Amino acid sequence: MGQLLRSEEMQLVQIFIQYEAAHATVDELGKLGIIQFRDLNPDVNAFQRHFVREVKRADELERKVRYFDDQVSKANLTNTASLSIGLDSAKQKQSHIDDLEVHFEQLEAELRDLSSNEEKLNRNYNELVEVIYVLKKAELFFSSTGMAGNMQLEVIEEDELKTPLINETGRGAGPVYQKAVQLGFIAGVIHQDKLSSFERVLWRVTRGNMFMKTEEIDKQITDPNTGELTRKSVFVIFFQGERLQQKVKKLCETYGVNMYQCPESYNERNELLGKLQVQLTDLENVLKKTGERRTAICSDLAGNIDIWKERVIKEKSIYHTMNMFNYDVGRQCLIAEGWCPRYAVDDIQLALRTAASSVGSSVPSVLSTIKAHEEPPTFFKTTTFTNSFHAIVESYGVARYQEVNPAVFTIVTFPFLFAVMFGDVGHGILLTLIAACFIWKEAELSKIKLNEMVKTCFDGRYVLLLMGIFSIYTGFMYNECFSIPMDFGSSWKFMTEGDEFATQIKDTPYPFGVDPYWKGAKNELNYYNSLKMKLSVILGVSQMTLGILLSAVNAIHFKKPYNFFFEFVPQLLFLLSLFGYMCVIIVIKWLNVFSHPPVLLTTMINIFLSPTTVKPEDQLFSGQVYVQLAMVAIAFISVPWMLCFKPYLLKRDHLAGRLEHDDHGEEFVFSEVMVHQIIHTIEFVLGAVSNTASYLRLWALSLAHSELSTVFWELVMILTLKLNAFYFPFVGFAIWAALTIGVLMIMESLSAFLHALRLHWVEFQNKFYQGDGRKFIPFSYELILSEEEA
Q1: CA-CA to 273 of 20 to 30 Å: which in 44, 244, 513, 525?
Q2: Which of helix, strand or coil describes residue 327?
Q3: Ramachandran category for residue 487: left, alpha or beta (phi over 0 → left; psi -120 to 50 → alpha)
Q4: Around Cβ 157, how many Cβ atoms within 10 Å?
Q5: Max CA-CA distance within the chain?
Q6: End-to-end C-alpha distance for the chain, whole angstroms
Q7: Strand intervals (E) in 381-501
Q8: What domains sit in the chain, N to C, each tagged with a CATH number?
Q9: Residues 6 or more apart from 32 whose CB is under 8 A from it?
Q10: Smallest Cα–Cα separation from 151: which of 63, 246, 263?
C-alpha cells in the first residue's frame, strides 16, 4: 500500500562514459527506459554542442525516410515485407547507419530523377492528348464552316470606309466589288467551367468581330499544368487581322487556355494527327516502364520503411541525448547526470557493462549517486488497469515528489460517484458490456489507429468497466432497471385497484435498496428528493474528510508539524463540527420515527441564530442544545487557530535561523506568508460550505437521470404498446432504444463523468494535493516511438 500511496524513491546518478562507448551506452539505456537525463549544458548554443554533425545527419536521414514514406503512399503500397536489418552491436549499428546514409542518397537521387522524368513525360503525354483532341475536333469545325481546304472568305468592301452607301440623290454611291479576306484562327483547350465567361469577355474584347466554335470533350482529361483530371472543351476562334490576334492571345493567356498550332489544310492536319498518335503510343510505353521501375523501388521501400524509420528516430534521439552531456577533455569521456528510480540502479549498471563490452571498451563506465539540490521528478509505476486512473489525476496536475497519490482512492471513489448519478441496473449493464468488449478485443484494438472518441473510450476501458459495475450496484440500491422497479418481496401493497396509498403488509423492510412501491406512489418525488439529497451530503462530507485526513499523512511524511497541528487539526474540527454534525442528525432522523419529523435545514440555521435554545419541534435527542453549543464553539475557535499560529511560528523559526524558505521554496517574507495563510483560511472556510453544496450535483443528476429514463419508457414504449397496430411496439422500441443510447448512455454518462471529475479535482484533491510536481519522463525508445506514431 505504501508503494501505491507514494511515488517511487528517486536517485540522482552521475555516469562517466568512455567516448567510444557513449553511443552504445545511450542505446542500451534507451531500451531500458528508466533514466531521465539532465541537460548539463542548458546555456550552450545548439551549434556549439558536441554532436551537431551527427544530429544534422540524423535529421537529413529522417527527412529522406519521410520522402520515401510519401512515395510509398503515392504508390498505394503497404509494408508487405519484413526485411529486418541486423543491428547486434554498437559498431554494426554505426556501420549500418553509414551504409543507410549512402543507400538513402542513391535511392533519393534515383527516385527524384524518376519523378522529374515522369513529370515531364506526363506533361508531354497530356499535351499530346489535348493536341489530338484539338485536331480531331478542328476538322469537324472546318468542315461545318465550308473552309476545310481554303481559309479565305469572300466579303463585299467599299472603295473607302468613309464612302456612304447612298448618295444625296438617293442612288447608289458607286460600284462595289468583291475581295477575298484571309482569316486567322486560334485553336486550344479550355476548362469547361471557364468557357461561358471566356465567350462573354471574348465577344466584348473583339466587339463581335470573331467567330467561335466549341465542343466538349466527352471524357475527363488530365491537365498538363496541374496534373488534375478535369472537364474540358476544344475551341477554334476565327478572326481577321493581327490586332485581334494579339487581343485573343492575351485573353487566352489570362484564362489559362492551352493553345496549340493547328495546320490550315486537311492533308497537313491528317498527317500531323498520324505522327502524334505514334508519339503518343511511344510515350505510353515509356511511361509504363517508368511506372514499373518506380513501383519496384517503392515495393522495396515498403518492406523496409518501418525499420528505417525506427532506426533513424532512435539514432536522432541518441545524439540529442548525448548533446545533453558534458565532455571531460582530460579523461576523454562524457559526463551524464540523470534521475532514476532507486530500484533501477543495478539495471543501469548492467546496461553500462553490456554497452562497454559490445564495443570492446577496456575502461568500464562509472556510475555514482550524487546529492540533489532540487526536488526529484515524480514517478508512479502503473499497470494497464491503474494507468487510466493516474491519467485522470494527472490531468489536474502532477503530484509533488512523495506526495500522497490520489489515484489510489480515485480507483474506487470516481466510478462510485459516477454511479450515484448514473444508477440504473440496465444502463449499468450496457456500460459494462461496452467496456468488456474493449477489454476482450484489447490486443487487436491496441494495434490499429482508432477514431479519437473511440480511442478515448478504449484507453479508459477499465474506468468504464468499474463505472458500469458500480452503476449496477447503485441501480439495485435505487431499485431501477431502465426506470422499471424490481420487486423481490415488497413490504407494501395496493389492497384494491385505484388505491392512492399502499398498505404495509410486512414489518420487515425491503431486503436491499428502495422498496419498489415507492415508484409510482403519490409522494414518490418527495421521497427520492429527500433520500438522494441527504445521501449526497453524507458522501460529500465523507470524501472531504478523507481529503483532510490525507493532508495529515502528507504533513507527517514531510515532517511538517505546523501543517499537522495548525492546518489539519483545525480544518478537521471545523468540517466535522458543522457538516459532520449535520450528517449525524441526518442519520438520527433516519433511525428514529418522529410523529412530526424536524426540518433539518431549519435546525442547522437555528444553530447559528439561536444556539442556546432548541424548539420542541426541532428536538432530535436529549442534550442537543449543549452539543450544538460545543459544535459552534469549536467551529469559531478553529478559524483563528488556522489563521494565526502557523505564520508566527514560522517567523520565530526564521529569526532563529532555522528557516530560510517558505512552503513554496521561496525566500521567507513574513507579510507574504501571512497573506497566503489568510487566503488559505478564507478559502477553506468558504470552501467547506460551497464544496458541500457542490456535492448536491449527485442528487440533481441522479434525479434527472431517473426522470428522463421514466419519461422515455412511459411516453414511448408504454404508449406504443397500448396502440392496436402490430408494428407500433417495434417502432416504439426503436425510438426508445435510440433515445436511451443517444441521451442516457452518451449525453448523460458524459455529463456524470465530467461532474465526477470536478468533484475529485476541486472538492477532494484541493484538501491535500498540491499537483505542482514534475513528471518523470525517461529516455525510452518505447515512449519516443509511441509519440511519433501519435
Answers
A1: 244
A2: strand
A3: beta
A4: 11
A5: 138
A6: 34
A7: 492-493
A8: 150-154+178-264 (3.30.70.2750), 384-560+663-767 (no CATH)
A9: 344, 347, 348, 351, 780
A10: 263
Q: Tell me, what's the pLDDT at 507? A: 67
- AA identity, residue 226: T
d(C-alpha 19, C-alpha 755), whole Å: 55
Q: How many CB atoms are closer than 10 A to CB 600?
A: 18
Coil, helix or strand at residue 645: helix
SS3 466: helix
Question: Tell me: the pLDDT tens digits for 456-498?
Answer: 899 999 999 999 999 999 999 999 999 888 878 777 776 666 5
Tell me what the pLDDT averaged over the chain comes to: 84
C-alpha span between 155 and 145 (Å, rounded): 15
Whole-structure pTM value: 0.78
In this structure, the chain runs to a length of: 790
Q: What one-character DSSP code corresponds to residue 172?
A: B
In this prediction, the residues of the chain whose per-residue pLDDT falls under 70 are 1-3, 77-96, 143-182, 227, 494-507, 593-596, 660-666, 790
Is the separation of the CB atoms in 399 and 450 below 8 Å? Answer: no
Residue pair 101/312 in contact (Cβ under 8 Å)? The answer is no
Q: How does pLDDT run across 145-162, given as a tens digit for each residue?
A: 555 544 444 443 444 434
Supply the angle between the helices 624-655 and 670-694 in degrees, to the nearest 10: 150
pLDDT of residue 139: 73
**One-letter identity of residue 516:** P
Instruction: Work out the angle between the directed axes of helices 384-394 and 461-478 (0-180°, nearest 10).
Output: 80
pLDDT at position 88: 38
Q: Which three cell numbers stand for residue 97?
A: 547507419
Give the residue ranges of DSSP H helices in 441-523: 442-445, 452-459, 461-478
| 702 vs 254: CA distance, rounded Å | 68
What is the dihedral angle through the alpha carbons of 589, 590, 596, 600, rounded to the nearest 10 degrees? 40
